[in-house]
């Protein structure tokens, strides 16, 4: 009885049943891993809300007069949270300015924490000043913006000097480092000549107008400006205007 040979091809229908692999669209359901990257979008949402603290020189650009005596610039910080300590190196052009000192600003201890400033290291040959301070106590650190330190300069010659920050380190009250951006400053030292009241290196009508704006003011009054009292007699009058006019056209 070979009738059994006929049905043997029928098992070949069993591969036809193998559309089971066609059921393998199960991998097509694997777009589920495609949905998994969507949670990774959550960290990308946080950076836009964060503001990196900025350590900067203030004012960023200033002018000083060669015969005007010492002047100052601040090293300040903005947008900080829980300030605990800081340190920095400031470089400058020693042929244009020298550093006379550095003092701790009010901001580090503004929440009542104690402060320990480090003595500044000043090198007027190389043109560097290093300074820093730490704080201690149970209070939280300072938030927001304020002055870290005030640097006192003395002008040495006319010209410009960059005030460049480097080696800046800022920490919170648990000594975790705080990442900061930096903004340098610059100072221009100008020469002075008698009668150059606006410090632009020439004596012209603007200087006459400055004296005239203080006309008849006497020492002790709000409008009195000793810089306009050319003869130092305690009042500003026609004699002071004539003294400025006598230098008309002079330049540095």
UniProtKB/TrEMBL annotation:
Region (Disordered), start-end ranges: 1-52
UniProt GO MF annotations: carbohydrate binding; hydrolase activity, hydrolyzing O-glycosyl compounds
Residue ranges constituting the Cohesin domain according to the UniProt record: 66-189
Single Gene Ontology BP annotation: polysaccharide catabolic process
Ranges of biased composition (kind: Low complexity): 11-21, 37-48
Amino acid composition bias (Pro residues), ranges on this chain: 22-36
UniProt-recorded name of the protein: Cohesin domain-containing protein
Natural source organism: marine sediment metagenome
Lineage start: unclassified sequences, metagenomes, ecological metagenomes
């Amino acid at each position: 009885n070979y009738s059994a040979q006929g049905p043997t091809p029928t098992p070949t229908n069993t591969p036809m049943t193998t559309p089971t692999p066609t059921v393998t669209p199960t991998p097509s359901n694997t777009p589920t891993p495609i949905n998994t990257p969507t949670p990774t979008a959550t960290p990308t949402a946080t950076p836009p809300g964060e503001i990196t603290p900025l350590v900067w020189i203030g004012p960023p650009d200033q002018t000083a007069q060669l015969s005007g005596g010492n002047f100052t610039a601040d090293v300040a910080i903005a947008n900080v949270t829980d300030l605990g300590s800081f340190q920095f190196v400031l470089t400058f052009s020693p042929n244009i300015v020298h550093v006379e000192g550095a003092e701790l600003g009010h901001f580090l201890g503004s929440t009542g924490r104690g402060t320990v400033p480090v003595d500044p290291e000043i090198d007027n040959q190389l043109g560097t000043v290093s300074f820093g301070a730490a704080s201690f106590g149970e209070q939280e650190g300072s938030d927001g913006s304020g002055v870290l330190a005030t640097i006192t300069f003395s002008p040495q010659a006319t010209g410009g000097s960059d005030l460049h920050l480097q080696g800046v380190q800022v920490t919170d009250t648990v000594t975790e480092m705080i990442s900061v951006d930096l903004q340098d400053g610059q100072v221009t030292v100008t020469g002075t000549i008698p009668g150059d009241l606006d410090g632009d290196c020439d004596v012209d009508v603007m200087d006459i107008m400055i004296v005239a704006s203080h006309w008849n003011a006497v020492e002790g009054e709000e409008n009195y400006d000793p810089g306009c009292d050319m003869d130092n007699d305690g009042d500003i009058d026609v004699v002071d205007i004539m003294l400025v006019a006598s230098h008309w056209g002079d330049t540095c």
